[in-house]
Amino acid sequence: MDPKHTYFNTVYPALQSSRIAYFSLEFGYSQSMHQYAGGLGILAGDHLKSSSDFGLPVIGVGLLYHEGSPHQHIDEQGNQVDSFTHIDRKHLPFHTVLDIDGQPLKIQVQFPEGTAHVRIHKVIHDDIALFLLDTYHEENAHDIGIMQITDRLYYGDREHRLRQEILLGIGGMKALTAMNLMPDFIHINEGHSAFALTEYIVQLMHETQQSFWKTHEAVASQLLFTTHTPINAGNEVFSHALIAQYLSSHCNELSISLEEFLSLGMSDHLDSHLFSMSAFALNIAGSSNAVSSLHGVIARDMWKGIASKPHIASITNGIHTQTWMGEHIGQLLDATIGNHWREMPESVESWNGIQDLKKEDVFHAHDMQKQSMIAYIHSRLQRDPNHTTLDPNGLYIGYARRFAMYKRAYLPFMDIQALKRVLNNEQGNVYLILAGKAHPDDHDAKAIIKHIHTMIHQHDLQTSVILLEDYDIALATQMIQGCDLWLNTPRRPLEASGTSGMKAALNGCLHCSISDGWWDEAYAPDRGFLIPHVQYPISPEEQDIIESNSLYDILTNHVIPTYFSRHAHEDWSSLMKNSIQKLGSTYSSHRMVHEYAKSYYMPGILQSKCKH
Predict the structure, then answer these.
(1) Whole-structure pTM over 0.85, yes or no?
(2) Backbone phi, then psi, for 608, in 5-degree steps?
């Protein structure tokens, strides 16, 4: 047995013979499997990777999307054009789960339109246990709506989305049962998969012959809900009419009335006819957590009015170190401090010795990664005959994430003259590299992309500001490993966590952000930059103006002079080393998984075993 597995099983012995099911609507664990749209999926992938590294028996459950999530093209007018492509399954790392007769194992999930025949595929990726459900095959040709449940991620009307969430939650539990993988603990990643909690209760009710309420009381400690958004619009809701149409049979299985079921999804900040998946999850799960300390404060206030009045704790997100560390920084650490940082990145001691690194060696390793990024950007810009040649000695500021109004990608463009002074300063070339997609239905976010595109062309910024299309894992990897500064400009306190900055910080790309999400607890002057936020703004417009001016000041008077004097002084190299050492361990997904195991998995499973 791997020594790390032995250690983990020694610390958490009750987990050795247990199963933990981890449900998520998206999983981003590799470039080839395009089954993710953003940070939620990347986090799910990193959670499974760290669990696998530890030998923790976590089983991922998701959907296999025939066309994945949309690709993005930005046309000459700056419009985001969404397109989908069929994924060639022949070259994807998964196999179809078979029954004892060698035929595809199938489960059935009932919908008002008819029966969905669901196949199950197991992903083959290291030691990760991930099962994806699939309706996009000929056995469902009798109803196109059923067949297309697993056509695309985050695309379609409310009815289509509800079908997906029923398939994920109810179908996911049925799939685990069919494979004899009945879990001892359920962890749902966001409210999309909340029906897994009640389907778990249904299956236990069949065994115990107890009522829904008795069974729920007995197993609540084995149910965990992780919430990711402090924005009302980001929490999934459905009309009562739609829930009644699709979940009445589920209510019958639970032996509760539709009215009782609907009451579990009610929230005092929603219209009375709406059913909230997050409120439902909070009412059913025995434990709930936010994904940063500040997010915990916001979430507890946000959900204080729901029926169960749950305590929402905080476990700050983390990233899978091995996945996101750049090749050259990683090789430098291996050669100088050893490879314990790879094996136990959550341990502070694993990073000892970084302060003794020579700044020239740190700069050289990072410059190699920067050159790789520049080459990759050039390859993406090849079809643009006017694209600029990038200076490898320049300061590269990266901004890459999902486009949404609260993330304020427009903030650097509030004062074009001030931005030009930053880009055209006398000390050296400065580049702003931006990437990110808007949700296909988020027209306000698409307008931000068009606005940035327009600003670039109207003010002749093409040689210094580059807006890249079709943001994905490959582009994210290049940017977080090659940029010098990572920019984040959310409207506090609407950023729940934000893991892209963690990935950048791991590579010595210094974080520069509003004090929100993870940066609210991680910032210190010796490891990055803080953009002062307005405590009590009169209006969002005033807040944007003041905070954009603070951004220009930070860049002009702190970032640029420190960066371009990096060879003469130690300041920039010290910031890089502190960023890697002090943030690398704390914001590892290994640390995150440890916290989930210690605070939730282990106590819940122990309590379950005591009852039996």
Answers:
(1) yes
(2) -65, -45
